[in-house]
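Let us work through a complete example step by step.
Step 1: write down the sequence.
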Amino acid sequence: MKRHAAALRGQTADRAGAGPSTANDKLLDILNALGAHGPHLALPELAKLTGLSKATLARVLRVAERRQYVQLIDGDKYTVGLPLLVLGYQALAGSRLRSLAMPLLIRLSEGFDAAANLVVPRWPQVLLLERVIPPRLHATFSPPGRLAPFYATATGKALAAFQAPHLIDDLMNRPRVALTEHTITDAQTLRTALDEIRQRGWALDKGELRVGVRCIAAPVRDAGGAVVATMGLSSTGVEEITDHVHIRSLLDAANTLSGLLGYA
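Step 2: predict the structure and record it as tokens.
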């Protein structure tokens, strides 16, 4: 959590440079922390993640709890409230990208008995928009809705590799923390990795976010050719997912989704 907290506090600092933080900003910081690190967080954990004082947190949380945007459970832990869940389900139901991807994700997951992922950018992080998890891996992989630093995931690196140079430069200038011994934190090494991804057309994560988990990912393009999402396959490190069959099937699925979005 300490490493993810540093990234979240960095976002808070970036926003602070644009002007004074409002009560709305503070509430959104709290909700982002609950979304990324929940489902249940106590006040001290929220303070570390957001950089807000406990007094400020208590004041904002009282209002949010009264409006049911957060809920207090077990006497000392907070979680998101039902109104946010309703909004989340409405957003998912209205997502054309997710609807088009779901049959492809199911086919990939069932075909390889692996977790199939759909990820979109939320720079400098990426959002797991959807994930299909086979029963044997339910205890290993988190459900959709989680944020992760782009540089520590195959899906995030596949997204970043195909962005405009100025965005890549901005991402390179942001701080990076090692989440495992395999996480790429050096800027030049990361640039080289992104160059290689552009050349071969797919990305690999060798336990860079979580020890023992490997992932491959491929870009998804919209009608204009911009890379707007990635599809990935994740499994435990003991299983091979970088063979030709896995990679070709993933690339075919990503290309199919791109076609459905209008890319020719």
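Step 3: interpret the result. The first helix runs from residue 2 to 16.
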